[in-house]
Amino acid sequence: MITLEQVRVRAEADARTAGCYLNPDKEFLNNLLEGLKANEERYGYPSCPCRLATGKFELDRDIICPCDYRDPDVAQYGACYCALFVRKDVFEGKKPVEPVPERRPIDKQNRAYGATAEIGAPKPSEKTAIQVTREKSQIQLKMWYCKQCGYVCFREEPPYICPICKAKKELFAEITMQTEPKTS
Amino acid sequence: MATSRLETVKVSGANKKHKVLLYALSTCAWCKLTKKYLGENKVEYEYIDVDLCSEKDRETIRNDIVKRGSEPSYPTIIIDNKLVITGFRKDKLREALDL
Lengths: 184, 99
What we know:
Chain A has helices spanning 4-18, 26-43, 57-60, 70-77, 88-91, 106-109, 114-120, 126-138, and strands spanning 21-22, 85-86, 142-146, 152-155, 172-174. With 184 residues, chain A is mainly α. Chain B is an alpha+beta fold. Chain B has a single domain (2-94), classed as Glutaredoxin (3-Layer(aba) Sandwich), CATH 3.40.30. Chain B is 32% helix and 21% strand. A five-stranded mixed beta sheet of chain B has the order 1-3-2-4-5, with helices on one face.
């Protein structure tokens, strides 16, 4: 059994690590923490309270809090999808929290609808298949390193702050691989 | 209609101007806000917590949302069996429900 306080402490630590804040609305925040607690008790892991989970770890991995979509959502919209994590200006009340559009790919969302979804769904035509593949390839993961402490990560964008030394995003640089053959 | 087979929870209210169906998640804070907002405005509505229903019902709900040209995100509010609002958007709800 996990207590609400444990869920809160963990969320606070996750926010600190990423350089963002928890939702300043106490009642809203409590509802989210209760939701995370309920999911942890149901599934064994704290999947996003605002998304439908499958209950299968492998299929829900990307929506376990903090989810894979948090950082780009906080940067773009000022809050993550469920609005547990917010940007500094939102935390300070300079900007209101508004609903965030779903960034998670639809094929991953559909996993929560089980086997019937697969049988019932129309077979994708060649055209849709191409579109799906294209969409996937739009996410380009790159290697980044923190010029201050050397921390390395593999993601679309560098983190908002370095989780190790707290250096700002601007202090990250992309690592590009040398592909040219060596001249001996 | 596919939705008639679903076991929804009916919340009574004085405002019966529109038929309001809410697809929600029991753990979701935005869904809670939606329920609270409808309650405060005494809107009569029906809801179903998708995370608590059977796999078969989940699929019925997903198909119902997709058929209406929307994405299976929650809350999804269906007004008078035609207008679909995804997410807790107070201004849109206020307009659609004449509040």
